[in-house]
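Lab channel / #folding
Pinned by the channel admin:
"Please post every new chain as: sequence first, then the structure tokens as a reply. Keep commentary short and put observations after the output so the thread stays searchable."

First post following the new format, from NK:
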Amino acid sequence: MPEKKEILITKHNALVEASYKLTLNEQRLILFCISKIDPRKPLAKDNSFTISASEFSETFGIDEKNAYKELEKASKTLSERWIKTYKHGEKEKFRWIFGMIYHKNEGKLTLGFSPWIEPYLTKLYKQFTSYKLAQVSKLKSIYSIRLFEFINQFKKTGKLSIDIEKFKERLELKSGYSRFYNLKKRVIEPAVKELSEKSNISIDWKPIKSGRNTKQLEFTFYEKKLRKEEN
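Reply from TO:
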């Protein structure tokens, strides 16, 4: 394996902004496989990606025995996950993968991405977001990873403003978070705290109100200078 600092994730911005919800290890598995794609080229003909428990353990800093269990668990659930995107003003809905094999005796997992997702991961020359896998490999919250991607779209300006309903839609939080207090305490504040502690991003946020109701979220951030060995 190349060093983690060399492993890049690249997605079309429409995929960054898509609506979906994955478990932490499903998200990690997807990111690891995306990191094996050259975003300037089409997918390989076999469109298959294999990850071993040892690779998963090393990349995300988890116990190898747990890695075996999590890969097996992901093999049973990831095929059921949907993505909702908007393309040319039309709503699209498709699955992440078209098939998966868990090689039980080898501790490996092989998957193939859905053909519908290929335009969001390959032949990307504009409107994409790129970052190092190592920048999110230590994160434990699914919301921290998504928020990291959202703000990385705007790393040139260091500022993201987003309607609160759009924010909840992307994270599939439409139900259960009608009260802003719950969203703040369970999603936003923990994600901001974890990003500030475990990533290369220092981030602050504030709610933007219209009357008595919060209508937008504003995130301001900058990249921290890391020690040489962390770059």
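NK: The chain has two domains: 4-120, 141-230.
TO: also worth noting, Residues 4-120 form a domain with the Arc Repressor Mutant, subunit A fold (CATH 1.10.10.10).
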